[in-house]
């Protein structure tokens, strides 16, 4: 079954319909995933440029066919929600990412582990809580953080390596609750779910929702899985959601929303925050978000699993496309890979149409005079003016250190990309007021390469340029 409409409880702008061939390709991928993955049901959705444009589900005969409004458990896709709550605290000045957890949540016994290390899974904490298996047993067995962490919670030196940790996100959920003075669930509802209109996302299921199943690995038979309340570990994996809500959440993580987090902060979350494990250079982890390279694209999102359920969320900022896939089996399909495929089908078949070129409404003549070629040593760069008084500095040959810069009060610019991220670009003037050079984090850019009299560090040879040495 396919639908082109979105959940009535979470309205989206009127979508631009996909081509029939694209819709069939999407349905074929979902159908193949449900069949080959041997799962009772599977549903996927795709959003682009602010709206859900397609959803489709498949189910075993006699089982309700899911749609964009059917809830499934999303497991660790809960973690980006917790990450957003922590980043809100940072943006409000209530904590710093470099703060040790003990500053805000004393008595955990995890030493000087920082908030940022917990977000990026570089804290060195154990992946799981002590036995029994927390995903299949009631959260009441672990009433306090001591029960979650156990006697030896730290396995690796903090900040040295990526080691996925459910216990770390349990601590972050407790941090949110401690700073806000209310439960993680209440904060989540008030600060993310309600502002973004994610009305089908919550800590407990509400109809229509799927039941969780285990499928026998060697026979086509089923066993129901328990759906446990995770208690204090809820911030690591408790949530239920729909593909419609998850696509909307992905659009927020791609673009930001000032009611929840500004665009600059979600961009920070999407940046790699810790080295990838040895040999795994096709993926990294940001601040609550997984990052991977698939078919030449950078995809961001998260995966999730709990007994009876698997979930995948992926989005491409460049393509303006997001995809979510949910299924109700303990193992079998790979929702993250299927979501990446759905995204790729739309992005490849119906690539984003560029916005029309538009002249700037006005331009500062002094800024315009700065455009054109500049030289760092003998490397040629071009400086261009972009929207809102920003500038872009790009090499004229090869890749080099390209960057966009945001205009700041006082006539400077702050780097937004790669090597120059956070670095300051400023115009340096000679005593007579003429522009001498550009300074970018102490790098000197001059109008000519090693011109006599220019402010080139180390000076310029008095005999100037010459022929054969």
Automatic annotation (TrEMBL):
Transmembrane spans: none
Task: List the InterPro entries hit by this protein, alphabetically.
Answer: AmpC-like, Beta-lactam-related, Beta-lactam/transpept-like, DUF7586
> Which residue range or ranges hold the DUF7586 domain?
363-447
Q: Does the keyword Hydrolase apply?
A: yes
Any one GO molecular-function label of the UniProt entry? hydrolase activity
Q: Which residue ranges does the record assign to the Beta-lactamase-related domain?
A: 31-344
The domain of life for this entry's organism is Bacteria
Q: Which UniProt keywords apply?
A: Hydrolase
PANTHER family given in the database record: D-ALANYL-D-ALANINE CARBOXYPEPTIDASE, D-ALANYL-D-ALANINE-CARBOXYPEPTIDASE/ENDOPEPTIDASE AMPH
Name-wise, this protein is Serine hydrolase
